[in-house]
Amino acid sequence: MSSSNSETRRKILTACWELMVNNIGQGVRMSDIAKAAGISRQALYLHFKTRSDLMIATTQFMDDELDVGLRLKAYRTASDPVEKIKAYITAWAGHMEDIQGMARALLALSPTDEEAREAWNERMDAIHAQCRIMTDALAKSERLSPHLSAKKAADLFAVLISFENWDRLRRHYGWGKKAYIDHTTHVVLSALATSEI
Question: What Rg, from alpha-carbon coordinates, does the chain have?
Fold first, then answer.
């Protein structure tokens, strides 16, 4: 990809991110994004064939811009499955602070907007995949609760750390970040891991 194409793509993704957050997703059309990026609607479609492609690319762009790789370093380098879970919850809690505007926008649109719903589900499926890696590791180390399969444990893990639960605890009930991390980690490990942990 040429540098001009790369720069145009960056402008589009930045414009989409900003408009989605500022408008809580409401009324954000491809033409609005093109205008905010300073390009024509036709030029926008040269980079993204569909609105769904653009939404998914924007959430991935956010991960890159927010350096999610660095944030996940402790998770990726931990060899013990319990330590991986602890590190992942800590990283995810911090990441939710940064993505909350876009997350709320996608969730607000999801009931009536197929592209937003597809983008949100793509991101949640990625979280679930990470949860499954961790529950498989618990099972392999014989520390997964005997009441759960690795798949069911991953399902439960993904729901327990969902953005919706984080948002409710942080915004509605006023939990601080440390309280969220500490209590969520305790609940997740109590639910998924053997009692010896």
Answer: 19
Q: What is the Cα–Cα distance from 163 to 26, expressed in whole angstroms? A: 19
The reply to whether 79 and 140 lie within a common domain is: yes
CATH code, domain carrying 41: 1.10.10
30-86 confidence digits (pLDDT tens): 999 999 999 999 999 999 998 888 988 998 898 899 888 899 999 999 999 999 999
- Domain assignment of residue 25, given as a range: 3-65
Using CA atoms, how far residue 151 sits from 81, 99, 125, 130, 165, in Å, is: 16, 27, 13, 12, 20
Instruction: Note whether 28 and 114 are same-domain residues.
Output: no
Q: Which residue has the tokens 């408009």?
A: 19
Question: What is the DSSP code (8-state) at residue 58?
Answer: H
Residue given tokens 């993904």 in the structure block? 158
Confidence of residue 22 (pLDDT cuts 50, 70, 90): confident
pLDDT in tens, 153-185: 999 999 999 999 999 999 899 999 999 999 999
For residues 176 and 185, give the distance between their C-alpha atoms in angstroms, rounded to a whole number. Answer: 14
3-class DSSP state of 193 = strand
Q: Check whether residue 37 and residue 52 sit in a common domain.
A: yes
In this structure, are residues 12 and 43 in contact, taking their beta carbons and an 8 Å threshold?
no
Half-sphere exposure (CA, 13 Å, Cβ side) for 110?
Answer: 14
Percent of the chain with pLDDT over 90: 69
